[in-house]
Design goal:
alpha+beta, OB fold (Dihydrolipoamide Acetyltransferase, E2P), 7-stranded antiparallel beta sheet, 7 strands, 44% strand
């Protein structure tokens, strides 16, 4: 019985802390910048408008990748990434945590 409990705890730990940390290589397909006065962001190439939360401390942008995922990002930190860049993204619990080129 104790062995089963230990296995369940190990499986839970694995799923929570190891498996949820997903890294993959993707290509940036679209960048979205905030529309002033609205809780929306507009795509640079597509002109598509999406809803994103805005905070007074820092404006939020978004990026769409070739895996069809759109993640909210900090505009100032990830400004130097361009559409078409191949990047490695780290996602934890469906939230983008880091973008890097190499």
């Amino acid at each position: 019985m104790l062995c089963i409990l230990i296995l369940i705890l190990l499986a839970t730990f694995y799923l929570k802390y190891i498996k949820m940390n997903d890294e993959q290589w993707v290509i940036i397909e679209e960048k979205y910048f905030p529309v002033e006065g609205q809780k929306k962001a507009k795509g640079v190439n597509s002109g598509k408008t999406i809803d994103i939360p805005q905070y007074k401390s820092s404006p939020k942008c978004a990026m769409e990748f070739n895996n069809r995922r759109i993640y909210t990002i900090d505009c100032e930190i990830y400004l130097d990434f361009s559409i078409g860049d191949k990047v490695k993204v780290t996602v934890i619990e469906d939230k983008l945590m880091k973008i890097r080129r190499k």
